[in-house]
Design a protein that fits this description.
alpha/beta, Metallo-beta-lactamase, Chain A, 6-stranded mixed β-sheet, 8 helices, 28% helix, globular
Length: 214
Amino acid sequence: MVIKQIKVGLDNFSYVIYCPIEEKAAIVDPGYDASKALEFISSKNLELEYIIITHYHSDHSSDCQRIKESLPLSKIVASESDGAKLGIDVDITVSDGNRLQLGDICLDFLLTPGHTPGGICIIVDNEAVLTGDTLFIGDCGRTDLSGGNLAQMFSTLHEKIMSLADHLIVYPGHNYGSQPFDTLGKQKPNFMLYFKDVMHLIRKLLCVIIFLKT
């Protein structure tokens, strides 16, 4: 398993996951410009099999149509609800517990609503987890945008992300943290994962707001 992290625009991360043995590749979140990802795939003589979209927001998904048009045998992968908002046909719909094979690499999918209703995370060979805008380094995705839901984000983080193995390397969708990736074990004490329930979180946020206004 090899994961190439690629900075796109100001702070987005796109990824190429590839199997060097069978020379198969997947692009995760091409963003506004997949040129660097496509150049990397070409330089390694890889075949693009999947274009995986963690969520429908344009800063993660805009260039998937151009890739599909230039490489029509590649398959677009997304959740049902977010895939419906992409404006392009999704070839493979994924949800909790689904698995795709990329050469000899296993890609396991988690449905992780909160930032969007159909956000997904991808566990790669039980070694890494690509979290899109669900979990960043030191923070989590916003829930105040269209489709965001704080209670869903809280449930996602505590019921799905917290239960994953500490050794997994977290590869986020944005370069918002002090480093571009980290182990999940080191991220579990972060701000959103600290709170025991959503009301605990809301009370803490209200205290912060009151403090800032005084």
